[in-house]
Description:
By secondary structure, this protein is an alpha/beta fold. The chain contains 13 helices and 31 strands. The protein folds into three domains: 61-393, TIM Barrel (Alpha-Beta Barrel); 408-490, Immunoglobulin-like, CATH 2.60.40.1180; 501-627, Jelly Rolls (Sandwich). The strands form eight sheets. Strands 7-6-5-4-1-12-11-10 form an eight-stranded parallel sheet, with helices on both faces. Strands 20, 22, 25, 27, 28 and 30 form a six-stranded mixed sheet that branches. The longest helix is centred in the middle third of the chain and has 23 residues, at 233-255. Mean pLDDT is 91; it is low at 1-7 and 9-44. Strand 8 (295-296) and strand 9 (299-300) form a beta hairpin. It is globular and about 70 Å long.
Amino acid sequence: xxxxxxxxxxxxxxxxxxxxxxxxxxxxxxxxxxxxxxxxxxxxxxxxxxxxxxxxxxxxxxxxxxxxxxxxxxxxxxxxxxxxxxxxxxxxxxxxxxxxxxxxxxxxxxxxxxxxxxxxxxxxxxxxxxxxxxxxxxxxxxxxxxxxxxxxxxxxxxxxxxxxxxxxxxxxxxxxxxxxxxxxxxxxxxxxxxxxxxxxxxxxxxxxxxxxxxxxxxxxxxxxxxxxxxxxxxxxxxxxxxxxxxxxxxxxxxxxxxxxxxxxxxxxxxxxxxxxxxxxxxxxxxxxxxxxxxxxxxxxxxxxxxxxxxxxxxxxxxxxxxxxxxxxxxxxxxxxxxxxxxxxxxxxxxxxxxxxxxxxxxxxxxxxxxxxxxxxxxxxxxxxxxxxxxxxxxxxxxxxxxxxxxxxxxxxxxxxxxxxxxxxxxxxxxxxxxxxxxxxxxxxxxxxxxxxxxxxxxxxxxxxxxxxxxxxxxxxxxxxxxxxxxxxxxxxxxxxxxxxxxxxxxxxxxxxxxxxxxxxxxxxxxxxxxxxxxxxxxxxxxxxxxxxxxxxxxxxxxxxxxxxxxxxxxxxxxxxxxxxxxxxxxxxxxxxxxxxxxxxxxxxxxxxxxxxxxxxxxxxxxxxxxxxx
Length: 629
């Protein structure tokens, strides 16, 4: 056993340090791992598993398995459990943060959790049909619900480990009803299952108030606890064998899910996550598995990549990927969280994700009684109303090869290119930069007559489309194009000389080693890890006529002590930007760099380091170029 534990620890440590250079992703348009590159410790069980036939065989059917998912683009995520009845409140006081973490945040003993939340749980207003119709009305094509969250409680009848709905006053299986409703309405169905983090089981990571187990807050998040608490490794293995794998297999056999969704893999050693994945593939090889089951630096062994929670902006990701916004800020229901976002936010989020090849899994937290907050229902209806008109520009769509457009984003399906127009041109002339193919026909999606729009070519690189003076939809009107021939787009972005241009750090070409992306939340759409002068940021752009721009740089800093200077170089003109620490942790600082006059042509905007104090250089969010009349 001692030799095995040492091997497991070494494996997890080695694989947690695998660099991007050692892992090759994205063979063609399939997301996968080049297992030939993963040759680190042949004697260790985890590496042998990662290289074994079962995993390689699972990759052979990846495209087939992911076909429905890649077409769906938009799904419904549900966080619902016994914690929903508390609604972000404990003993008469609000509890901040994610309400589904109530047990951990308030250090509620297992017995008290059972007595006050589990046993009395009675969602008498739960209606599976109503829930599924909310999703269908929103235009969602798949549906994922928490079968077991971190509190360890199964929201179904579990014979594998009976800490489940039979203990409640309700004493019914809502998961079975939801499975039936999903089948009825033609919606793909699946489960969230907390495989690694469990606050009920005495041998699971996470509960450090009842059991003093590692993996909780006492170890600052509990990552890599197995390197210091080797004594707990057999306990974690016991938990996985007794509860995690049996319940996952039970869910597969009992409900026939299309997709399984996991989270917090860093709470278990990698080899245990791989063992769980293997059990899933053996039980049902066709189930889609998300990227938060068996993950390490440089990649994951799942079917697609998950980006950060609640992202508003998306960094470039190759292959299949998914983002998980929620209607307010908490995933579980919180009676105190009224920060619901506008319908427009989600419409543009779906369009933006589709334009970059990804999916949106939009979350709502129903109330403990089984009803949805009316604010959530209205958001779902609003997005669905837009999709009922413009859905053809989302479902089954993929990236185009067009460069970034100032007015919005682009998608394509079969032989149709779709222009998602967020900023309607005041003069009615939409310029599509980089479109070298001639337009055969252009029309506004949703126009029953498909009345043709007049088009013209400005140059070999750009076309012009003449639009009505008033946008049919002020959030996102979609124009469809068919092309006379298929030519590669001209890749350099065309800037507007009449409206603001935003060069996001997420769209920059990154130079040097060690740079990484923020999670995409507002003001966290920065690039981080800028700590040496071999690193830089580059945006290529062009303009079709001479223009004067005011130049601004937006950023924040890693710490409240970071300050220094960076150099912005446009067309050989250098601007030294002296920056100060962030105004607040997730705020944004803005500095006017100056003004520039540039003639028609093609240019590079280069951001380089000069000197800094503190942890690192500023974390760039965007460069703004605003025309000056």
